[in-house]
Structures are given as structure tokens and as C-alpha cells.
Design brief:
The chain is of the alpha/beta class. The protein is 36% helix and 21% strand.
């Protein structure tokens, strides 16, 4: 079983306009509503590739009800902790020549809620995959990723972590199966510029030395680099297309990579290609990329 964890799910309200003038009433050209959060995005894309998962996390209020209904409507199992107070976030994404995002804080999560979440982890078994993705709400302990992996350390699982800064560095001691910093996040960790692929490879190898089993670095228009568990270096060029959306592209890459590992029975080159195709399909779509778009791009991806 694959479990995805989203601590702060959201309803994303995406609006398009030719321009936005502050202090005035603005007419919109179009609008869309998407349900997600980083872990949920992974679940959606996995499902579009034919792989099931169970979504964990916290939801609250009428927006939480809508998020859970949307996830289940897509054929994905859920086991969320339902909060007694507050409501799940509504994020406003403004597309008017550039991308402007207004992301809400989300509901308060108390200690009892966290304990209920930990109880749900008891269903995780040897051989399962647990995907931890995204930031931590202010009301949660800053070490919750570490606490989760510590609680699962007695089981043989594949942990996937998509986080940044100390949140990522602090889980490396638990030897996560995969981490996925982008080039800018890798630069933030080591205080460097990451325009040179050789520098990216050098510092990705440092993350392996610190405990990560596999390190996947997304580089936007420059493609992606994977340092696998055997320290083999794999590169994949960027997919060709017009980028219209960056939200969820990294989550899609993770989903494609995990799906690729399943389809190919552990072929890292194949997994990297499918991950790159999934990220590209989302970048070229208004929402998350479809399964058809991912497979079409997969046929066009190649080693860099």
C-alpha cells in the first residue's frame, strides 16, 4: 500500500485575468477550483497512472468535506483525521501575466488530533510506501516528520520525503528511500548557486552521504538528475511544451517516479523518465496532468 500524508490540504481557487489592479473591482476571464495539497496531488497522479493509494492527513469544516469527497470521487481511499474546529484552507491562485498565490494558514491542530493521526499509522506494514510532502502548519510540532519516521522505524517501509531546509535534513538519519529537492532548494540547503549540473550532482551526493537512499533533483527547464542508491547518475532532459502551471509539478514527478519503479520493477532510468513526464504533463496543464498526457510525454523524454 502507498500512503500519502498531507497535513494541510486545500481548496485551490484559481482565477485568470488579463491584468489585476489593486484597489479596484476586477473582472475575471475564467476560474477553476482544484482540491489538493502536495500529498493528495501525489495520490491523484498515481491514480491516473493506475496505482491506488490511501490519503492521510487533517481536514476540517465544509472545505474539508469537499476535499475528502473529491479525493474519494477519484477512486482514492482516505483516512483523514477530522478536526472538531476550523476549516481546511482555501488558497487563491491569481494568474494575470504572472503567478500570484495567496495561501491560507489552515486550521489549528491540537495534540489530541496528532495522537489520532499517529494511531492511523499502525496500519502501515512492511513493504508499504509512505510519502511525506509539503510544509508543516504552525500548530504542528516542527519535528513531526521525524516523529513519523521514528514510529515507523521498526518496519521495512519506503519513505519518500518532499520538504525543504531543516525539515528535510532532519529526516536523513532515517534513510528515506527518496528525497526530491529542486535545484533552488538544494542551493538553500548548502548556501550555493545551483546553475552548474556538476555542482548539483556533487551536493546531491552529499545528501546521500547524510542518509538519503536516492536523491532526485528537479531543475525546471533543465530537466532532472537522479543519484540512485548505487550512486549511479541518471539525467533526463526537459519535456517539450508550453508551461502554464507550476502547482503540483513536483508532486506529479514523485508520483511518476514511484509508479515507474512499480511498473519497471526497480529500473531507475525508467522511473526517472516517467517522473519527468508526469511533472511536465502537469506543468503543461491547467491542473494535474492526465494519464494520457503523461504517457505521451514519456515516449518523448530522453537522457540529457
Amino acid at each position: 500500500m502507498i500512503y500519502t500524508v498531507t497535513f494541510n490540504p486545500a481548496v485551490d481557487y484559481v482565477v485568470h485575468a488579463g491584468s489585476i489592479k489593486t484597489g479596484e473591482i476586477n473582472a475575471l476571464d475564467s476560474e477553476n477550483i482544484f482540491f489538493g495539497g502536495k500529498g493528495i496531488n501525489v495520490s491523484f497522479v498515481l491514480k491516473r497512472l493506475g496505482i491506488g493509494s490511501k490519503a492521510l492527513g487533517f481536514i476540517g469544516g465544509f472545505t474539508g468535506d469537499a476535499i475528502e469527497a473529491a479525493v474519494r470521487a477519484n477512486g482514492i481511499e482516505t483516512d483523514f483525521v477530522r478536526l472538531e474546529n476550523g476549516f481546511s484552507r482555501i488558497n487563491v491562485k491569481i494568474r494575470a501575466g504572472n503567478e500570484t498565490d495567496l495561501n491560507a494558514k489552515g486550521p489549528y491542530i491540537n495534540e489530541a488530533d496528532v495522537l489520532r493521526f499517529y494511531e492511523k499509522l499502525s496500519s502501515v506494514k512492511n513493504g508499504d510506501t509512505v510519502i511525506l510532502a509539503g510544509s508543516i502548519p504552525p500548530s504542528l510540532p516542527s519535528d513531526i516528520y521525524e516523529s513519523i519516521l521514528a514510529r515507523l522505524s521498526d518496519r521495512s517501509i519506503r519513505a519518500v520525503v518532499d520538504a525543504r531546509g531543516k525539515l528535510l535534513l532532519n529526516v536523513l538519519k532515517y534513510n528515506p528511500f527518496l528525497i526530491k529537492p529542486n535545484a533552488d532548494e538544494l542551493g538553500e540547503i548548502f548556501g550555493i548557486r545551483t546553475e552548474d549540473p556538476d555542482s548539483i550532482i556533487f551536493h546531491a551526493l552529499r545528501l546521500k552521504e547524510m542518509g538519503a537512499v536516492n536523491v532526485l533533483v528537479s531543475m525546471g527547464e533543465r530537466g532532472a538528475i537522479l543519484i540512485d542508491e548505487n550512486e549511479e547518475i541518471h539525467r533526463c532532459g526537459v519535456c517539450c511544451g508550453k508551461a502554464v502551471n507550476t502547482v503540483g509539478a513536483g508532486d506529479s514527478m514523485i508520483a511518476g517516479f514511484i509508479a515507474g519503479m512499480s511498473f519497471s520493477r526497480g529500473d531507475y532510468k525508467y522511473a526517472l523518465r516517467l517522473g519527468t513526464a508526469a511533472g511536465g504533463a502537469t506543468a503543461f496543464s491547467e491542473g494535474l496532468g492526465s494519464g494520457e498526457a503523461i504517457l505521451e510525454l514519456f515516449e518523448k523524454t530522453c537522457e540529457a
